[in-house]
Amino acid sequence: MVLYPITGFAPEGRETPRSGTRGGKVADHPDVVVKPPLLVLGALAAAFVVDALWPAAVLPRAVQVPIGIALFVAGGCLAGWAMHTFRRAGTNIPTWRPTLAIATTGPYRFTRNPIYIAMCVAFLGIAILGDSLWAVAAVVPVALVLHFGVVRREETYLEGKFGEDYRRYRAATRRWV
Asked: Which helix or strand (DSSP H or E) is residue 118 part of?
């Protein structure tokens, strides 16, 4: 196997260490370590199991509900806006499908990763609503896995696929906020 370490892409029909092959063709999707929705749901479930064993409160109920609801709704709205923008751009949302276009409008004008930001904000809202210090703390490792195991790999994939167009977008738009 010939390695193409900079972009993770090879000339058509050749395998790379990051993309793998399917049916003799290079797989056209980022090689992320975990599907982001599964990461978030798994981390929430694990945190609430730990919380059931060792309860640790976060905030008084009077502030926990409005803050938790506000964060959950904000995350949901941001995710909806980002997914709508992806659909309008004509590209796929799931990380296991090919990216067909770079979305640069809507929330993608401000950040390259609004869906992942939305996931973390909604996660935090659920953690606060559930009054779980463990779930609040779990936001940090979730964000780190998203950064190193998903976003960095997506960036390599997008640069290899879209070249200069993606490099210009990356230079003009923050990764996070």
From this structure: helix 114-129
pTM, whole model, 2 decimals?
A: 0.84
CA angle 123, 177, 173 (to 5 degrees): 130
Q: Which residues pair with 21 in a beta bridge?
A: 26
Domain residue limits at 138: 35-172
Q: Give whole-number Cα distances, 49 to 18, 52, 53, 122, 138, in Å.
A: 34, 5, 7, 19, 12
Number of domains present in the structure of the chain: 1
The answer to whether residue 90 sits within a structural domain is: yes
Residue-wise pLDDT tens digits, 103-150:
999 999 999 999 999 999 999 999 999 999 999 999 999 999 999 999
Q: Is residue 151 part of a domain?
A: yes
- Has residue 143 been placed in a domain? yes
CA 147, 93, 36: angle at the middle one, nearest 5?
A: 35
Q: Report if residue 73 sits inside a domain.
A: yes
